[in-house]
Design goal:
- This protein is an alpha+beta fold and 246 residues long.
- It has 2 domains: 3-83, Glutaredoxin (3-Layer(aba) Sandwich), CATH 3.40.30.10; 91-227, Glutathione S-transferase Yfyf (Class Pi), Chain A, domain 2.
- Helix content is 54%, strand content 7%.
- It has 10 helices and 4 strands; from the N terminus they run E-H-E-H-E-E-H-H-H-H-H-H-H-H.
- The chain has helices at residues 12-23, 43-48, 67-77, 91-119, 145-178, 189-192, 195-203, 205-212, 215-224, 228-236, and strands at residues 3-7, 28-31, 55-59, 62-64.
- Helix 1 runs parallel beside helix 3, helix 4 (91-119) runs antiparallel to helix 5 and helix 4 packs parallel to helix 7 (195-203).
Length: 246
């Protein structure tokens, strides 16, 4: 019985799991669930996930809903197939991977998601000089007060996220000056877990500078994002009409 993944491949949580399944050559069935359809969602899915979260993973009798727990499950259960270094060969390697997995979950995930969220509201030609964002550079004449307030809130969120990510990526820059990947000289779950949100940052010029301005982080990003499993996830993220056969 193949593994089942319920969710949208455009969700960061789902994309993280799909990348891991592809890395491990695990057969799976993707049941696309639109998180925004409310009562129209599949009844069977709502039995698994009553609150309608973005991701549900089934593997036999195992049902999980948190992407990083799912990564550990896949890498451990299917350790002898596909790419074999995702979780490390021993306790020392695994401890380093766990450290960086926690860093991604606790320090990278929220500010990167917040930045992507804020950019969805902000002008595509907003200043990119790295100075404190303010509404002075944006035309506000005729702007509805509620819209103006929302724009100001998003600018503040963008600036806060930029500072947090900048400090964190400075740490990554130092680490990646010593090692090819975060947890050592091989690609692991520590790197894979960053793919969905980092991909969104790299795709927007307003946030891509966070990666491109750091030589080692940039090298690391282009290496991990160029892996075939992630390219396959990107294929699944295309609209169905443009999607490649799977």
């Amino acid at each position: 019985m193949p593994v089942k993944v319920f969710g949208s491949p455009t969700s960061a949580e789902v994309a993280r799991v799909l990348a891991c399944l592809f890395e491990k050559d695990v057969e799976f069935q993707l049941i696309r669930v639109d998180s925004f359809r409310g009562p129209k969602r599949q009844p069977n899915y709502l039995k698994l996930q009553p609150r309608g979260e973005a991701l549900t993973f089934e593997d036999g009798e195992v049902t999980l809903v948190e992407s990083r727990k799912i990564l550990r499950h896949i890498a451990d259960k299917y350790k002898n197939q596909g790419y074999k270094d995702l979780f490390g060969p021993g306790a020392l390697e695994r401890a380093s991977i766990e450290q960086w997995l926690q860093t991604e979950a606790q320090s990278f995930d929220v500010p990167s998601a917040d930045m992507v969220y804020s950019l969805a509201y902000l002008p595509s030609d907003m200043p990119l000089d790295g100075k404190k964002a303010n509404t002075g550079g944006f035309p506000s004449a005729g702007m509805h007060p509620a819209h103006r307030q929302k724009t100001e809130e998003m600018l503040q969120l963008f600036e806060k996220s930029r500072k947090e990510l900048g400090k964190l990526l400075d740490i990554y820059e130092q680490r990646l000056d010593q090692e090819e990947y975060l947890a050592g000289n091989k690609f692991t779950l520590a790197d894979l877990s960053h793919l969905p949100n980092a991909d969104r940052l790299a795709a927007d010029p307003r946030s891509a500078r966070l990666i491109e301005s750091r030589k080692n982080v940039s090298r690391w990003w282009y290496t991990i994002s160029g892996r075939d499993p992630w390219k396959r996830v990107k294929e699944l993220q295309r609209p169905p009409s443009a999607e490649a056969p799977f």
